[in-house]
Amino acid sequence: MNSDRVLDLEGVHNFRDFGGYAVTGGGRLKRGLLWRSGQHHGATDGDLRKIAALDLVTVFDLRGTKERSTHPCRRPADFAATVYFPEEASQRHAPHVAVARSASRRDAATTREGMRRNYGSIAFRPELVGMMRRFLAELAKGEGASLVNCMAGKDRTGISVAVLHLATGVHRDDIIEDYLLTNTAGDVEARIAAGAATITALAGTTDDEVLRVLMGVEAEYLESAFRMMAERHGSPDGYLRDVLGADDALRARLREALVEI
Questions:
Q1: Taken in order 9, 83, 95, 255, is the CA torsion positive or negative?
Q2: In tens digits, what is the pLDDT along the chain, a chain of 261 residues?
Q3: Which residues does 83 contact at the CB level (< 8 Å), separation at least 6?
Q4: Which of 16, 11, 10, 12 is closest to 184 using CA atoms?
Q5: How many CB atoms within 10 Å of residue 36?
Q6: What is the pTM of this model?
Q7: In sequence order, which residues have a C-beta less than 8 Å from that of residue 240 and are 6 or more positions away?
Q8: What is the C-alpha separation between 165 and 203, in angstroms, rounded?
Q9: 214: β partners
């Protein structure tokens, strides 16, 4: 199933379907409704035609104002989806860029540790919390296909997809599996090169091994986020309820909208 999740595009990376996983109580998330990706700044005309064919109803662009102004997304002609942005005028860098900028000298090991620490707080960023609350609420309406994206489609998007999976009852192992698909989805070398150009521009020259760590994901990163959710709210379920407003009623609506038997 994983091999057919990826939408083959030239200038948009990590574009894939995160539905299809089994959920507790029976059934699976529907396919063709739940999409995730990196930014669309480099989309080709051919990419835009393929994206248009998805009939997206909502797009959740998790990038901050500066990211969007320097790398505006290309959209298909007659694009009618509602696009949501963070309400706060966030100037924060993407998590992997923030790690790259945090030290003048860095190796692969310290970069991994920086990413782990970063994930301990990412799920509590106010602007991301606001977007994830809206993401869950809008998807619970069941109005059609949606896309969630950030710069690389792996960190802020990864957390957002994980909370949707948690809220609908996807098994933790499948949540991690979907998260790790970033490392193999599509043209990995092109994705790394695109990310490297941005990282180098913002953080200076970085060696290839560090760049590959910055542009990849590891299970421990997401587990760090889950641990912080548990430390502050008793469990990831407590985080969903207390921080994102995903109570039993909202979770039931999400399942009704997104799960098929």
A1: negative
A2: 466 899 999 999 999 999 999 999 999 999 999 999 999 999 999 999 999 999 999 999 999 998 899 899 999 999 999 999 998 755 565 666 666 556 555 788 989 999 999 999 999 999 999 999 999 999 999 999 999 999 999 999 999 999 999 999 999 999 999 999 999 999 999 999 888 887 877 767 678 888 899 999 999 999 999 999 999 999 999 999 999 999 999 999 999 999 999
A3: 58, 59, 60, 61
A4: 16
A5: 27
A6: 0.93
A7: 163, 166, 167, 246, 251
A8: 33
A9: none
> Which tokens sit at 15?
């574009």
> Which tokens hold the place of 28?
């699976």
* Best CA proximity match to 36, nearest among 57, 18, 50: 18
Domains and CATH numbers, the chain: 2-255 (3.90.190.10)
How far apart CA 110 and CA 126 sit, in angstroms, is 26
